[in-house]
Design brief:
- It is a single chain.
- This protein is an all-alpha fold and about 450 residues long.
- The protein has one domain.
- The chain has 16 helices and two strands.
- It has a two-stranded antiparallel sheet with strand order 1-2.
- Strand 1 and strand 2 form a beta hairpin.
- The protein is globular.
- The protein starts with 6 loop residues before the first helix and ends with a helix.
Length: about 450
């Protein structure tokens, strides 16, 4: 029954053959990745078991091999090597720990949830002038998920599991509804509310950039009856979808990411950055000391659930760092690490990555997050002030990286949050590599990057 999961891959293959891999990436891969759960796998005996979006990525790679020139927008840069080494290190760590039979799904995931999304985003978005098309599709898909999630919030029933679960018997049952403040926390197709919070944080920040850039029309042809402007409506929908995850870490991450975006709205960006760095020193350090004092009292002495959660996450570091150091280069693998009694869940992706996959993967991952954020900020300070305040793409992307950095300190990074991060990395790297500039859809053509050449040039001549 799980073979139904190949349906998006078949559609993507046919569309890519009829048009281009780039078109199938926008019209099939993105909606599939954002709207279909990754905890459902297509069972293929003797082969890796792909998820919906991994199946689409495989189909697009096959078409790219058949049709030469599909990735002609690609240009090598040093971050490619970091991404490839990260993927190889994670795959090798599992191979070292469990052998190929158990490692094949993770090897497959590294290829089609890390490397392939990164290459597609880097090759297709900026080189072909598709930044607004890409961003709108991401936001539209997440807005649809947000609306559907209202049902989950009200009735504590995940509609994805209800309608897709019968096709994947025995899969996804571990991802149940969680509650906070007496209300159901929405997970949608993202397995857990904490992961949904990260996805909605990304969508909210991209939507705010689209809003600042004037990318949406004030009136939607599909919803002309809206009493408010369409960009405002989309921002409200994403805000609502973000809120009903009740993911406090992602809320904080999205809020702090806004400060990075705010720097891009100031004329004197160097001064604004100096102010932010000063705030980190004079406010952040005392706040960190206060948090350590708050979280170090031990779970037994916690005064409420919030403090108990903070204490647990603080204790995890001391419980598992020494274990991680026992196999510091390649790690213990996905499931082979020793579990400490009373601490079965490692709610810190940095610690979990070091524990499972070792130093090499850990340092590559840190460089992807912090390195990309810093490079984007430095790049943005050299660009002229955009015509529309807040529409700096580099500052907005840097803000999303900061959001990731903060959010995954409180939860593991899994399911769709992985390909989403590497799509953003490919987009950001392609933007900087092509010396991209800020512009809005209403700008004159000379301010926009050249689009792709026509697919059927001879026919147009005739």
């Amino acid at each position: 029954m799980s073979l139904i999961g190949f349906l998006p891959a078949i559609i993507a293959f046919r569309l890519a053959m009829a048009t281009s891999v780039r078109e199938a990436f926008l019209r099939v891969y993105l909606p599939t990745m954002l709207c279909f759960p990754e905890y459902y796998r297509i069972i293929t005996p003797g082969l890796p078991d792909p998820t919906f979006d991994q199946g689409v990525a495989v189909a697009l790679l096959i078409v790219a091999v058949i049709k030469s020139g599909s990735f002609k927008g690609y240009r090598f840069s040093h971050i490619d090597a970091v991404v490839f080494v990260y993927a190889l290190s994670v795959a090798n760590s599992e191979y070292q720990a469990s052998g190929y039979s158990d490692a094949q799904n993770l090897v497959f995931e590294m290829l089609f949830s890390v490397v392939m999304p990164y290459l597609m985003a880097k090759s297709f978005i900026e080189p072909h002038g598709l930044r607004f098309d890409f961003a709108k599709r991401v936001v539209t898909c997440l807005a649809i998920v947000s609306v559907i999630n209202v049902y989950e919030a009200k009735f504590a029933l995940n509609l994805w599991q209800k309608f897709l679960g019968p096709f994947f018997p025995g899969q996804g049952e571990a991802w149940g509804i969680t509650f906070r403040f007496g209300m159901a926390r929405t997970a949608g197709p993202y397995a857990h509310a904490l992961l949904a919070g990260i996805m909605m944080m990304v969508g909210f920040r991209i939507q705010r950039w689209l809003h600042y850039s004037g990318a949406w029309p004030d009136k939607s042809k599909l919803m002309p009856w809206l009493p408010i402007k369409f960009p405002v409506f989309m921002s409200l929908v994403l805000t609502g979808g973000f809120f009903i995850t009740f993911a406090k870490g992602s809320w904080l991450a999205g809020f702090l990411a806004g400060f990075v975006v705010a720097v891009g709205r100031v004329k004197n960006r160097v001064l604004a950055l100096s102010f932010v760095l000063g705030a980190i020193v004079f406010v952040g350090i005392p706040a960190l000391i206060s948090f350590i004092n708050y979280a170090s009292v031990g779970r037994a002495n916690a005064k409420d659930d919030n403090q108990e959660t903070a204490c647990y996450r603080y204790e995890l570091i001391f419980l598992y760092v020494d274990i991680a150091k026992e196999k510091e280069w390649w790690g213990w693998g996905l499931t082979k690490w020793p579990q400490v009694a009373g601490a079965p869940s490692i709610d810190n992706h940095y610690l979990l990555l070091f524990l499972m996959h070792g130093k090499i993967a850990f340092y590559c991952f840190l460089y992807i997050l912090f390195g990309m954020m810093i490079r984007l900020i430095v790049y943005a300070t050299k660009l002229p002030q955009p015509k529309r305040s807040g529409s700096s793409l580099a500052f907005n992307l840097a803000g999303i990286y900061l959001g990731y950095i903060i959010a995954i300190a409180t939860v593991f990074m899994g399911k769709q949050t992985v390909p989403m991060l590497f799509l953003l990395t490919g987009w950001a790297e392609g933007f900087m590599l092509s010396r991209g500039k800020d512009y809005s859809p209403s700008d004159s053509d000379e301010n926009k990057p050249a689009g792709p050449p026509p697919l059927h040039r001879f026919g147009r001549v005739v």
